[in-house]
Design brief:
This protein is 44% helix and 13% strand. It is an alpha/beta fold and 375 residues long. It has 2 domains: 261 residues, Aldolase class I (TIM Barrel, Alpha-Beta Barrel); 90 residues, no CATH class. It binds 3-hydroxy-3-carboxy-adipic acid and copper (II) ion.
C-alpha cells in the first residue's frame, strides 16, 4: 500500500519523551535506550535540546559520540544561540522549530508574518552556513493559515533545509484533515515531509498514518507514546501497523518492541496501560470461554497478529468467564487429566467465585485435587 514511497521513523523518546511530566532520564539511561532504539532500526533519533539543562547538553554531546546507524538530530529553537550549541557539539542534523500559527506569532513571539518569515530565513541560512543538515518544523502547523504555511515551506526550501516538518502540536487534526494538509503542502513544497502528531484527542497514530498515506516520508514516535500531555504515536503501534496492515518492507526488529517498552517503563517510572496495543500486558491475553476455545483451534480467530511476531506469548485467564475447553487445556498443561464430570465440577466451583478474577496455577491444582478426592 505504501511500498512505492520511502517510509522513515524518527524516535523522540529522548527529547519529547523526556518532556513527559514526572520524567527525567540520566545520561546513562539515555545511552542504554539509544543503543536499543538504534538496534531496532530507527531512521532518525532526536538526542535532545541542549539549552534545556546542563545534563541534557551533556547527554547530547555523549550520545553524539556514539557510533549509530540512525541519523542523530538535536532539537532547538529558531535562534542563533541554539544553532550555535548544536554546531559546537557537532551533531550533524538539527531540528529547528518555530510556531507559525496566529497564536504563536502573537503570544509566543509578538511578530508579524513577514517578521516571522525573515527570522525563519535568517535561521535556516545560519544553520546551513554552520554546515548543519536541517529539518525545519512549523510548530502548530495544523492551526496555521495554509497560504502562510506554504510560504514558510518555500522559504525553508529556498534557504537549503533538507526536510520540512508539520507539527500538530495540540493534536487537533483528524485523519481526513491531515490528508488534506499533507496533500496541499506536497503540491507546493518539494522537500521530504515529516509529521509530528500529538495525541490530545487520541488520534496521533491515525493522523501519522494518514500523513504517510498522503505521501509524508517520516513520522515522529516515542516508546510507549511518551511526550508532553498525551504524547506522540507509540513506536510499537506505528511500526507493527505499518508492517502488518500496510505491508511496508522495512528492517525494523519488531521483536525488540517489548524490551524497549519495558526499558523505558523502568527508566521513566511510567507503566503502560494493560490494554496498550502490542506491548500492554493484555495485548495477547484471552478470557471468555468462547474466545479461548476458538483461539485453541485457530489463534487467528481472536488475534490480529501472532504474539510471536513481537516475541511475546499468549496468555489465558481463568475466571468465571472460563469455558470447559479452556479449563481442560489449562489443567492438561499442568499434568492434571480430569474426567468430564470432574472438569464440570471444577468449573462450577470457579463460576461460583466471581470475586476471583484470575485463578493462579496452584489454586487451580488444589481446587481440582479437592474435586478428584471427593469421590
Ligand atoms: C516542543 C514542541 C514540539 C516541536 C516539534 C518539532 C511540537 O516541545 O518543542 O520540533 O518537530 O509538538 O510542536 O514538540
Ligand atoms: Cu511535540
Amino acid at each position: 500500500m505504501l511500498n512505492h514511497q520511502k517510509i522513515e521513523i524518527l524516535d523522540s523518546t529522548l527529547r519529547e519523551g523526556e518532556q513527559t511530566p514526572g520524567v527525567s532520564f540520566s545520561v546513562k539511561q539515555k545511552i542504554a535506550m539509544i543503543k536499543r532504539l538504534d538496534a531496532f532500526g530507527m531512521d532518525f533519533i532526536e538526542l535532545g535540546h541542549p539549552v534545556v539543562s546542563p545534563d541534557v547538553y551533556e547527554a547530547v554531546e555523549t550520545l553524539n559520540d556514539l557510533e549509530l546507524h540512525a541519523k542523530k538530530m538535536a532539537h532547538g529553537r529558531a535562534s542563533k544561540s541554539d544553532i550555535n550549541d548544536v554546531a559546537t557539539i557537532g551533531v550533524k542534523w538539527m531540528g529547528i522549530f518555530f510556531g507559525t500559527s496566529p497564536l504563536s506569532l502573537k503570544h509566543k513571539f509578538n511578530v508579524t508574518k513577514s517578521e516571522a518569515l525573515k527570522r525563519i530565513e535568517t535561521c535556516v541560512k545560519y544553520g546551513k552556513d554552520k554546515g548543519l543538515k536541517l529539518r525545519f518544523t512549523a510548530e502548530d502547523a495544523s492551526r496555521t493559515n495554509l497560504d502562510f504555511l506554504i510560504q514558510v515551506g518555500q522559504v525553508v526550501q529556498e534557504c537549503g533545509a533538507e526536510r520540512f516538518s508539520l507539527a500538530d502540536t495540540v493534536g487537533c487534526l483528524t485523519p481526513a484533515r491531515m490528508k488534506e494538509l499533507v496533500t496541499n503542502i506536497r503540491s507546493e513544497i518539494d522537500l521530504p515531509l515529516h509529521v509530528h502528531c500529538h495525541n490530545d484527542f487520541g488520534l496521533a497514530t491515525a493522523n501519522a498514518l494518514a500523513a504517510l498515506e498522503s505521501g509524508a516520508q517520516c513520522v515522529d514516535v516515542t516508546v510507549n507514546g511518551m511526550g508532553e500531555r498525551c504524547g506522540l504515536p507509540p513506536l510499537a503501534e506505528v511500526t507493527t501497523i505499518l508492517t502488518e496492515l500496510y505491508k511496508v518492507n522495512h528492517n525494523w526488529d519488531l521483536g525488540l518492541l517489548p524490551e524497549l517498552s519495558k526499558l523505558v517503563e523502568s527508566f521513566s517510572g511510567r507503566i503502560s496501560e494493560a490494554n496498550q496495543p502490542i506491548v500492554g500486558k493484555n495485548a495477547f491475553t484471552h478470557k471468555a470461554g468462547l474466545h479461548v476455545k476458538a483461539v485453541m483451534e485457530e489463534p487467528k480467530s481472536y488475534e490480529a497478529i501472532s504474539p510471536e511476531t513481537v516475541y511475546r506469548k499468549r496468555h489465558i485467564v481463568i475466571d468465571k468467564y472460563t469455558g470447559k475447553a479452556a479449563l481442560k487445556n489449562k489443567l492438561d498443561i499442568m499434568g492434571m487429566h480430569l474426567k468430564d464430570w470432574q472438569l464440570k465440577a471444577t468449573l462450577k466451583e470457579i463460576k461460583a467465585h466471581p470475586e476471583k478474577v484470575s485463578w493462579k496455577d496452584d489454586e487451580l491444582i488444589s481446587l481440582a485435587n479437592s474435586i478428584i478426592i471427593k469421590v
